[in-house]
Specification:
Structural class: alpha+beta
Domain Signal transduction histidine kinase subgroup 3 dimerisation and phosphoacceptor: 426-486
InterPro entries: HATPase_C_sf, HATPase_dom, Sensor_HK_TwoCompSys, Sig_transdc_His_kin_sub3_dim/P
Strand content: 25-35%
Oligomer: single chain
Distance between the termini: 55 Å
GO molecular function: kinase activity
Transmembrane segments: 392-412
Domain Histidine kinase/HSP90-like ATPase: 533-620
Radius of gyration: 54 Å
CATH topology of the largest domain: Jelly Rolls
CATH architecture of the largest domain: Sandwich
CATH superfamily of the largest domain: Galactose-binding domain-like
Helix content: 25-40%
Number of strands: 32
CATH class of the largest domain: Mainly Beta
Number of helices: 6
Largest sheet: 7 strands, antiparallel
Shape: rod-shaped
Number of domains: 4
Amino acid sequence: MKNIDSRIQELETELSKLPVPSDTSSGTRRGFQTRGIEENEDLWVEIVLPQPASLDQVVLVPLLAKGAQGQIPGYGFPQRFLLQAFDADGDTHILIDETAENFPNPGIFPVSAACPRGVLISRIRLTATETWKRNAPQVLALAEMIALSGNRNLATKAEVRASSSREMYPTWSRSNLIDMETPLGLPVLPLPTETMSGWHSDVATRRDTQKQVTLDLGTTYKVDELRFVPARPARLSATAQYGFPSRFIVEASTQEDFSDSWLIHDQRESSLPPPGQNLLQFDLAGKPLRFVRMTSYRLRERSADYVLALGEMQAYVGNRNIAIGKTTIADESLENDRWGRVGLTDGLTAGGKLIELPKWFRGLEKRRRLENEKALLTAGRAKLLEESEKTLVFGSIVATCSFAVFAGLYVLRSKRQRRLDRELHRERLARDLHDELGSNLGSIALISSFAKEGEGDEAQMRRDLIEIEEVARESADSMRDMVELLGGGHAGAANDWLAVTNGLASRLLRDVKLDCRLPERPLLIEPDLETRREIYLFCKEVLHNIAKHADANFVSFHLKPKANGLRIEISDDGCGFDPSTVSQGHGLSNLQKRAAGLRASLSLESLPGRGTFISLDVPRGRRWRKPKTR
């Protein structure tokens, strides 16, 4: 979506720099069309140039016709066709061959073909091998056929021939094929700022008021072509007819007083159909002139009044418009920021800059390609969005179902794991009870059996009872510690495991000076139950060994929380031993096994007569949790 949007933005930037077709038939002359096709008939139309000429390209401009359902762009443009050029020797040159498959309807955009270089072309023919079909008669129709040589259209004086022609002047006619009236409008390149609209006379109250405007080229030129550009104020639509006279004459002269004038065009006897936004071209064949004058005999009505207005006057010598910046002579002129004498020859008109025909057609064809690409991207974007929404909905359903399944599996697995943990705790608790209480109860039973036999004296019996009392008290203390350690005494008792460990040290080392430093408050991250149990039993075994074997006067017992776990340090100033020669009976094997079960690092340092130092670094496990507030 991001790539598509980026490309669409690039296309919109490029399109903003290209000419825009008018997209309306602003004049009254639509174009040319044949009659309906008959059996075994080929529909064709051709133009015969006044004399063979070297052409750069041929341009076909489609029609914009009116139908029952509205405007029909590309009306009558053939689905399959052949465009041919015939040279002065009668040889045929194929310019476009679209007879193999259907040609996409171009709408109103021009279709152009390059001509062979250095070949003098006398006529151009378009043949429809498969006609346009759209709930209408099968006809061949065009708005214009243009033969470009440089910047000039040489087809304006051509003869038009056709297999047949629908003659309904001014709408349909053979002559409409070469009159430069198309739905494309004027050859204008849009500009971001407003431009002058042209030249404008004073307002008249009578239709037959004569008004004149004269172009002074400054010196005499052999002019090949004269063009008039109709005016259109920026606020009016392209279909509005503004200021172009319906009856007029165009004269040329080499003298300012027109003493040697000659007529270029005489439109006094009949009214000219409104030209709309289309060029009016007059072929002068290189006649010398300096002054060109238009004189109106019947003005076109504006709104209860009458004016003479022109957008631009152009004079071509070869491929160059020499009228740019030349002088405009007029007895009357509306002068403001939109109209003025300079507006007749500034190369601008309402909406933009006037450009040459080849550049205009290239720009329009590029616009057609870019708009087609943009349309495909927009359609693809909509389809992608639709597919993405479907995928999102389907994916959400699948994800929800998958989450429910995995959540259910996770719950079942968690329950199973908790059940296994409980079983494991039961087994370990049973083993601890067996090792601790079973041994003590066995000692009580053995001492009791000796006392029962009555073979000893009274003093011996008293000693046996004292020993039984000590063993029973030790068993009760161990049972109480185990219950407190496992959290079975009261809610939140799991947080008291440090106090249980502290009490253990105090009992086992009550006859020794003890430096016991355990955290007074619950740790930020508490070990899980199994880890607490193993730490308790590890400490109990070490402290029991010190009480039984070390003969120490001072013992240090420290438990320190670390960022990644806990550290336990236990040291004494007792007799010490050589770890390399010690037997298994001292319980070192049990300590190593418990350290391995905790994945902890065990360190033991001892020398005979120098005491013993033991440290255990317990890493933080994944089941460690923040303590619950009591």
